[in-house]
Amino acid sequence: EETLQHHYLADAIVELEPSATEAVDEKVKEMRRQGIDDMISLGVGEPCFDTPDNIKNAAVKALMDGETKYQPTAGAVPLREAICRKLERENNIKTDAENVVVTAGGKFSIYLAFTAMLQKGDTVVLLDPAWVSYEAAAQINGAKVIRVPSSAADGFSPDLDRVERVMDDSVKIIVANSPCNPSGALFSKDTLRQLARIADKYGAMLMSDEVYEYQIYGQTHYSPASEFENIITVNAFSKSYAMTGWRLGYSVAPADIVDGMKKIYSHSTSSVTSFAQWGAIEALDSEASAAEVKKMQRIYEENRSLMIRLIQKSAYLDLDCEPQGAFYCFPSYRFDMGSIELATRLLEKYHVGTVPGLAFGQCGEGFLRLSYAADGKAIEEAMGRMETFFQELEKEIG
Ligand code: PLP
Asked: What is the model's pLDDT at position 20?
């Protein structure tokens, strides 16, 4: 039914849901604005740190030195060269500046690649539970999404046989996100290799979203583009260097995809902010920021242990899949209640923000995503309130 309100909108946009994670964040902020001063958010996917000073200073210096002009659409050449050095040094990916596109966050890399590649009739394969924006980006571009389920019992690692079974010639992209938001799963090297091979067999690309590569606990990161050609690697400065508000990310892809992305980019936003790119160069090249990253990693590691301990102590939460990466725990809860209702009640009554698992797909129903990129004391307080909330809920619904 066409309503007046929808009259001007494209069908794909009418059907589109806004980002669930941003909705939680908005709600928390709105409650704060209303004067509720004891809000604790375990809902946002954002480091609890400020950007390291050396990175800020490099951007300030660039600004004062006059880096205030248009840059090449794909990013300033020195930044793309620094990205290439980083990829070779840390990810064993050999590429050159022509294959790199610097974007407003990793999110816009994903969006641009999808826009460049997809049209009606195409399919994107997602591994459920999956980060919220892949499906939306596919929908906006008229493509169909097939979600391949996984389970906590299998550590939320994809079932490769099921992936094979959904493949056909309409599949253009399989998206793998390791370490994974929301589950914290780290896919094995073998799994990622198999995904690259399955994609290749059907003429598809594997998009490897590696934005949490610096949040891995006790294992090593593997980038499929170190071995395979049919890969779009997506990364960002956001989580790695606590630079979410800078909106800086990048992708590396084969030349024709990069050319397609650049064409759309040049007609839309042209490029990211000039002087911010010099902050990004400093982030990649300096020892000072490497040392800051290590400090952040130690704190994430401590917080992760703390949250795992508190979940294990809880009478109402289960953590079947201990997170190996990112900064989230993804426990299930022992109530027969939808995750949206549960998270909403928890937020409204106890002022604790979490993300309902359903936001990440059907496999996330019955789970909550809790971010431990937060102050340790706040984590303890929030988990304490959750336990009280669950006790009350038990009395109410049993
Ligand atoms: N990919 C995943 C899995 C994410 O969780 C996020 C941010 O939440 C992004 C990409 C986008 O990050 P950015 O802030 O760099 O756009």
From this structure: 73
Q: Is the CB of 45 under 6 A from ligand 1?
A: yes
Share of the chain above pLDDT 70, in %: 99
Residue 22 has pLDDT above 80, yes or no: no
Whether 353 shows a pLDDT value over 80: the answer reads yes
Over range 179-185, report the average pLDDT: 97
Residues 205, 225: contact at Cβ < 8 Å?
Answer: no
Distance CA 366, CA 356 (A): 8
Task: Burial-class residue 68 by CB neighbours within 10 Å (0-12, 13-18, 19+).
Answer: exposed
Contact 57, 68 (CB under 8 A): no
Helix (H, G, I), strand (E, B) or coil at 280: helix
Q: For the CA atoms of the chain, what is the radius of gyration?
A: 21
Contacts of 81 (CB under 8 A, 6+ apart): 97
User: Ligand 1 test: best mutation among 51, 107, 132, most atoms within 8 Å of CB?
Assistant: 107
Which residues fall within 8 angstroms of residue 105, CB to CB, at 6 or more apart? 236, 238, 244, 247, 248, 249
Q: Does residue 398 surpass a pLDDT of 90?
A: no
Task: Please state, in angstroms and rounded to a whole number, the distance separating the CA atoms of residues 103 and 21.
Answer: 21
Token pair recorded at residue 238: 């956001």
Q: Look-up: residue for tokens 């009395």?
A: 395
Rounded to 10 deg, the angle between the 287-313 and 376-397 helix axes is: 30
The rounded Å distance from CA 389 to ligand 1 centre is 30
Region 48-67 average pLDDT: 98
Cα dihedral sign, 69-70-72-73: positive
Q: Is-contact 101 253, C-beta < 8 A?
A: yes
42: which 2 tokens?
């375990």
